[in-house]
Amino acid sequence: MVLVGGGHAMLPTLVAAAAWREDGLAVTLVNDHRYLYYSGMVPEFLGGVYREDEVRIDLADLCRRQGIAFVEAAATRLDSAQRVVYTAEGTPLPYDLAAFDIGARNPCVADGAIRTKPLHHVTRLGALLADLEAGRRSSLRLLIAGGGAAGVEVALNLSARFAGPDRPPLHLTVVEATDRLLPAFPETMSSYATDVLRHRGVTVLPDERIVNLTPGEAVLECRGPVPVDAALWATGTVGPALFREAGLPCDPRGFLRVRPTLQSPADPRLFAAGDCAVVQGYEHLPRVGVHAVKQGPTLRDNLYRTARLLQRGRPLAG
To answer: Which domain holds residue 197?
Structure first.
């Protein structure tokens, strides 16, 4: 069994895998980073509420304790016909059963910007904020691209952390392409968030886009060049490319289509959960960590049942 991605939905499977060894199941986890960062706590980590070690799980250590082989590498190619996952280095990982929980990706990220997907990239911003807090830099000009839920939550946490005359100067700007922040939420919520941020000195720019980003400067569509030290990219998500490249059924944004069992309709040996998947009947479910967490027990139970069917030579539905 090859588990691709140690996301929120994969945790129950990783915990159960130790007992599965008694049934002859060999489990491998391949993940592009040693740590899983919990999405619900990362904005508060950036806001100074939590330490970094409080918002992450050490996947390598968890795998060691559970008897799981851990491969720290990005999975970049899938051959479902041959049942092989390939890492970015070209290492083949053959499987009898595979499950994906690799999250989503930021589209069209400008060179040099800090990604919000996968989440471990935001530690780059965490390091800059720590330097500002400790006096290792005199100020920080931060541009947040995207005024949706992720961008606004980060902006609220950062503006609270550095509020007050005795705090290091954080110059924060939020750019949103639509006519208001939080466009998917009620206008009252949008207005409230905008008022709070502006009261804290945050520059909020609706109806604006970033057309170019270079070290030290961002060029905005309407306002032209503005000085920046860092840019955080929070402009929505798309699915990982490897599903579509493998010829598997995906929705228009590239998320793998799965049944309520979390199995691909094209291959009952292939499972997916969390942000990388779209579940039949729940296509409009927001991609937030709580839903991935709820999918975890279903993924664990159905993986185990399917593995036992394969061991007994029983046919798989679909």
So the answer is: 114-233
